[in-house]
Amino acid sequence: MSPLLTTAILVTFGCYALAAALALTRVLRGPLVLDRVLALDLLYVYGLLIMMVLGIKYDSDAYFEGALLIALLGFVSSAAMAKFILRGEVIE
Amino acid sequence: MTMPMWVELVLAVLLVGSGVFALIAAFGVATLPTFFQRMHPPALAYTFSTWCVTLASIISASMREGKLVLHPWTIIILLSITVPVTTLLLSRAALFRRRDAGDVGIPPPLSVREQTGPSAPESGRSQVVS
Question: CA A38 to CA A29: how far, in whole Å?
C-alpha cells in the first residue's frame, strides 16, 4: 500500500473521529430526547463507516460482516427508541 | 498487494470525500439551532459518505480478488431502506411532542383539518393545544 493511500486512510479516520466527537456533544447536550436519539443514530453510521475503512486498510473481507451487523442493529435500536418516544411502548 | 497508481488515487479521493462529508454532517448536527433543522445534515452521512466508502470498498475488494466483487453494495441497499423509516419515526415523534406541548406554528392533525376546517378545531389533539 502506497504512502498516498495510507495517508488518505489516516485523514479519513481523523475526520470520522472529529465527527463522532461533534455528534457526541449533541448526545450530551441535546435539549430534547429526540436530539440524543438522532445523534446516536449518526454515531452508529460512523461506526459502520469506520468498519468499512478498516476493511480497506487491512485488505480483509471480515470487516464487511461487522459493518452489516452494525447497520442492522443500529436501525433496530433507533426505530425502537423512536417508537418508544412516539407511543410510550415499543410493540403494541 | 500491488495496485496501479490511478486506482489508489481514486480510493484516496473517495475516502477523503467521505470523511469530509461525515464531518460536515456532524458539524451541522452540533451547531444548527432547532431540531427540525438538525434532522437534515445526517442525510449527508447516510448517503454521500456511505456511498463513497462502499464504492472504495468495492474497488479494493475487486482489485484483491481479480474480479468484480459487489457484495459491499448490500450496505447501501440496507441503509437506503432503513434510514427513511428511522427519520420518519423521529420526525413524527417530534411533531406530536411539539403539538402536545402547545408550540405555535405547528400544523394541526390532518383528521381535524378535514372534518372541521383549520379555523374551528373541535376534537383530537388540538384541544390539548388550545
Answer: 12
Please tell me if residue B68 touches chain A, with a CB cutoff of 8 Å.
no
The pLDDT tens digits for A42-63 are 999 999 999 999 999 998 888 9
User: Position of cell 427519520?
Assistant: B87
- Rounded Cα distance, B10 and B14, in Å: 6
**What is the C-alpha to C-alpha distance for residues B99 and B107, in angstroms, rounded to an integer?**
8
- Which of B27, B90, B95, B125 has the most A C-beta neighbours within 10 Å, making it the best mutation to test the interface with A? B90
Predicted ipTM beyond 0.95: no
Question: Among residues B71, B130, B79, which one has the least CA distance to residue B100?
Answer: B130
CA distance B34 to B16: 29
DSSP letter at A68 equals H
DSSP classification of residue B39 = T
**Which residues in chain A are contacts of B5 at CB distance < 8 A?**
2
Alpha carbon separation from A19 to A36, A46, A61, A75, B39 (Å, rounded)? 15, 8, 26, 20, 16
Q: What is the pTM of this model?
A: 0.83
